[in-house]
Structure formats: structure tokens, C-alpha cells
């Protein structure tokens, strides 16, 4: 399994009994933390735009909850179960987006001709790169993997992984 607690087991317990989708979100509901990051002088390695486009407020309002608040806690658990249980939805989103990218020249054209290849790609993305926290930070929805990930792998990297896999299979016989 390549996924973190958010992708695998639903949540992590942070400070003051706050439940978070993953460890990356443990301090996003602490104003002092956000302010300290935004006040840094040399933050080229940080994508500070994530802190400014409202997704952190969304995360704090809808996805960070205190486990003692039973109503909110149950709501968050329900949402996260949906993330894990509706794989077909996530695969369909990836396949449709992949075909759109191929149609406009931003992904390999082979994806237009082979639905099984698209499905393998979707399963790869959902199993190896599944991160609801990353999705929330970049797209504002736990279900939608950033399109930049598709572009990265759909223009040759995924085919290299498949090639390597099949070469290793043939040498094991």
C-alpha cells in the first residue's frame, strides 16, 4: 500500500482530539502555524498559494473535527468512507479526464483507443497516488486528483512503469 493514513485508514488524531484526514493537516487549523509559514522570507519550496485560496478554510470547516463532537465526527467518517468505497467513481473521473487530456494533446493518444489501458492507469493513480488530503488542498474535493498528476504520468512515465513490469515478468519465468 502506497497511501498514507488518509488514503488508507481514514484519519489521524491531532492536538486537542481533532481528527484530520492526514498528518499534513495536523496544524492547518492552528492560526499561529499558518501565520508563521506566511511570514517566512525564504519559502520557495512551499506552495503558499494553497494557504491563500480558501481550501484550508474548507478543510478546517468541513474535514477537521473534534472527536467529541459526535455529529461532526460521524459526518466526517461518512465522507471518508465514501472516498474509500466509491472507487469506480474515482476511476471514471480519471478515465474521462485522461481521454480529454489525450484529445487536446496533453496525454498520450494511446489512451483514446484502449479503455483497458485507461482503467489500468486509473487504478494505478488511485492505488499508488491516492491522497484525499492532496486532492482537497489542490482541487477542493477529496475525490478529484489534480490533473497535473495525470499529465505527469500519462505522457510516458506510466508506459515506462508498465514496460519495466512486463520485462521483469518475462525474466522471472
Strand order of the largest sheet: 1-2-3
Helix share of residues? 55-70%
Radius of gyration: 19 Å
Q: Flag low-confidence runs.
A: none
Query: What is the N-to-C succession of helices and strands?
Result: HEEHHHEHHHHHH
Computed structural class: mainly alpha
The total count of helices amounts to 10
How does this model look, in words?
The protein has 173 residues and is mostly helical. It has two domains: 5-82, no CATH class; 86-172. It has helices at 5-8, 31-38, 49-52, 55-63, 70-85, 87-103, 110-113, 115-128, 132-139, 147-172, and strands at residues 12-13, 18-20, 65-66. A three-stranded antiparallel β-sheet has the order 1-2-3. A hairpin with a 4-residue loop joins strand 1 and strand 2 (18-20). Helix 4 (55-63) crosses helix 9, helix 6 (87-103) packs across helix 8 and helix 6 (87-103) packs across helix 10. It is globular and about 55 Å long. The mean pLDDT is 83.
Structure described in brief:
By secondary structure, the chain is mainly α. 64% of the residues lie in helices and 4% in strands.
Q: Which properties best describe this structure?
A:
3-stranded antiparallel beta sheet, mainly alpha, 173 residues, 64% helix, 4% strand, 2 domains
Amino acid at each position: 500500500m502506497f497511501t498514507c493514513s488518509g488514503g488508507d485508514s481514514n484519519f489521524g488524531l491531532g492536538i486537542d482530539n481533532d481528527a484530520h484526514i492526514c498528518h499534513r493537516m495536523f496544524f492547518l487549523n492552528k492560526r499561529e502555524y499558518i501565520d508563521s509559514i506566511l511570514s517566512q522570507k525564504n519559502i520557495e519550496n512551499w506552495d503558499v498559494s494553497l494557504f491563500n485560496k480558501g481550501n484550508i478554510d474548507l478543510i478546517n470547516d468541513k474535514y477537521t473535527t473534534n472527536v467529541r463532537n459526535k455529529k461532526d465526527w460521524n459526518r466526517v467518517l461518512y465522507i471518508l468512507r465514501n472516498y474509500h468505497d466509491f472507487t469506480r467513481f474515482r476511476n471514471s473521473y480519471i478515465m474521462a479526464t485522461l481521454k480529454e487530456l489525450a484529445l487536446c494533446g496533453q496525454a498520450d493518444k494511446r489512451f483514446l483507443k484502449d479503455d483497458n489501458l485507461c482503467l489500468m492507469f486509473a487504478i494505478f493513480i488511485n492505488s499508488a497516488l491516492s491522497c484525499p488530503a492532496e486532492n482537497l488542498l489542490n482541487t477542493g474535493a477529496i475525490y478529484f486528483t489534480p490533473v497535473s498528476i495525470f499529465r505527469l504520468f500519462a505522457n510516458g512515465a506510466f508506459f515506462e512503469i508498465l514496460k519495466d513490469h512486463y520485462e521483469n515478468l518475462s525474466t522471472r519465468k
